[in-house]
Amino acid sequence: MFVFEITNLFRQYCDEPDTTWLTAADVASYLLTGYNEFRWKVSDMAPHTYAVDVSIPAGGLLTYDLADPANTVRILGNNLSAGVQRMMQLLQVRTPASTLPNDLAWKSAQGLRDMQSTYRSYYLQGTTLYLSLAPSGNLTLTYIPENSVDWANTATGAGAEYVDDLAMFHDIIALLAYKQYSIRDANVNQPLMMQLGMRLRELEAYMNRRNFEGVQYVRRTSDSYEDV
């Protein structure tokens, strides 16, 4: 679905003809909040759904500030590098290889002290990425980026704003947005809330089945409990 379609659905749910009470700016704001919540729910079930990669020049370094204007690649702070999206959650740090399956994954430490006993580990504190050893070259960071959908763009046709590939569940965005609106309206629509609960359960079931073998395939890895 596109932004204009979800916007129309949200306005139908609200059933509010007074556009001075529910303005276009209000609608965009509620949909932005609803979509952010939708993305987090999806990412909680399948973290790599919206994930992107970025390469940072960390060769020879034990720390890298992801917001420092002096650094080439910045994915945090108020001065992002050109062409990157702001990081909301760091998922993985890897040493890149010639082919992706052979990338060397670093372990996520629980704190700076934990890094002393965890080989090839990293820890993000504030905007600074700490490394237990200095890599020889670039590192690849996989992270969940900030939502970049323009919810104010309700154009149709060629200029329509695309949302994402989970179109069959985009009604949930409108339902989550309505939940925010109902706080202001002080009027909870019980059927809509019941629909939201049902659709979230269906979304969870779908995400668990989306990668069919993923929920069935289990194997021992180098990070299993036996190695702790």
Describe this structure in words.
This protein has 228 residues and is of the alpha+beta class. Helices cover 31% and strands 16% of the residues. It is built from four helices and eight strands, in the order ααββββββββαα. It has a four-stranded antiparallel sheet with strand order 1-8-3-4, with no helix packed on it. α1 (3-14) packs across α3, α2 packs across α3 and α3 runs antiparallel to α4 (190-210). The N and C termini lie far apart (45 Å). Residues 217-222 and 224-228 have low confidence and may be disordered.
Whole-number total of structural domains = 2
Walk across the major sheet and give the strand order: 1-8-3-4
Rg, rounded, reads 21 Å
E-strand count: 8
Uncertain segments are 217-222, 224-228
- Report strand %: 15-25%
- Straight-line N-to-C gap: 45 Å
